[in-house]
Structure formats: C-alpha cells, structure tokens
Design goal:
By secondary structure, this protein is mainly alpha-helical. The protein has five helices and no strands.
Amino acid sequence: MEPLSTHGEFVVPLRFALGLVAAGLGVAVMDAVMPRLPEGETAPLVASGVLTDTHPDEAPRRLAAVVHYVAGLLTGPLFVWLLLVAEGLVGPGIVATAAADLVLFVLMVGFFIVVVLPRSRVEPHRVGTIQRDWAASAAAYLLVVVPVVHVGSTLL
C-alpha cells in the first residue's frame, strides 16, 4: 500500500521534516524517562566524557546536552532514511516500519555499547546498568518517533 500523497514530489522532503519533528518529540519523552532510571542521565555524560577524555561524572554538562540533542534530532531523519530503504526493499507498510525500527534500535544501542561506552572512564561495575538504561531510553525515544513518522507518512 503506497502512502497517500497530495504533495507529489515534496513527499520525501516532507517525510524528512516529519522525522525531525518526531525526533523532537522523541527527545522530549527520552528526557522524561532518563531521570527515572538509575544511570539514565549518564549516557550523554559518557559521550561528553569520551569527547573530552574525562570521567563521566566530571564531563562538561553543556557538551553532554548538545551531543544529546543534536544526536537525538538527527536520528529522526536517519529513521526516515532507513524507512525509505526498507520500503524500497519490502514495500511501504508495517513490515518496513518494523524493520527500520529494529535496525535503528540496534544501531542506537550497539553504537553506544560497542563504540562509545568502552572508550569512557566509567567504572566497570556501572557498565551493565548504563547499558540497560540506555537501551530503555532508546526504546522510549523510538516508541514516539516510529508511530509519528509511520502515521504522518501515510497522511502526506
């Protein structure tokens, strides 16, 4: 089933704009979830600490916020790109959306756990909790972004 379109050639750019709006909403939800988790607010500090070669507890909080929001906002258009690729492979619909969602979740969690976290100065006993809390935060983000983009795409 093709997404409905009254905007012709503007559908793809509009979908990327929709991804950006959805990402803003997703980051807002993520911001509500992270403080409720034991190490929920640590992930941005880990990224900031890796960039500045400092311990996450001493990492620049402003840089952590910038990295968090920039990455969060850019991940929305990344989801749209993955969705367009999936739609090209299996056609538009829930299967393509689920495939793009799964791939993005694996990329989000995998990149943080395999690339970023091992380069941090965080204590080893905290790693498991940080990994779990990041996965939960990423899932909360995607629980917003995916339906907004999916439904919004069908309305374009």
